[in-house]
Amino acid sequence: MLKKISRFLALLIVPFIGSLVIRFLYHTNKKVFHAPKTIPDEPLIFACWHGELLMIPYIYSYYRKKPRVKALISPHFDGKLISKTIGHFGVGTLAGSSEKSPAKVLIQAIRTLKEGCDVGITPDGPKGPRHEVADGIIVMAQKAKAKIILVEIKPSKYWQLNSWDRFTVAKPFGTIHYYASDPIDIEGVDFEAARDLLKKGLLQHER
Questions:
Q1: Domains, the chain
Q2: The pTM is what?
């Protein structure tokens, strides 16, 4: 019972505080966008490494003034915290386990794209290996005939957690560099070639 109460309170409080922290970090940093000025109005897949996702809502709002995106988030408790936090930025959620029911998650994501909504994904999430592109994003893009935008988020000053993904938190009063690729079409591309292309693109500005 105590665990349920503590989790309920955490879900009530932590996401709100987290959203305030993200806004504070964003607004106390200079921002430089190394990205196309416009992107197609068609449904797209936005991809970034799991360790860089903290400030991802702002590259999305750079392009879409009215949010129409759903992110693939684990249904576990940590995932629920992330889901509620990004919800404060107008980002919806596709909850599902890529370990227990990968087909179900992919079907949801493909349907979401075909319905005209963008999808956000961390190709190495939710548990790694770090900087390795799983099959899901490739299947999703090819089945839905959706293009992919690769996003890298590189703060000049940051803390890096000792977690599997080396999760990065921008420090205040630095510069956040947002890198976004042109939309990438991998329809008809061999799986391994597509995996290599996406991995290289997401590591282009790795320190």
A1: 2-202 (3.40.1010.10)
A2: 0.93
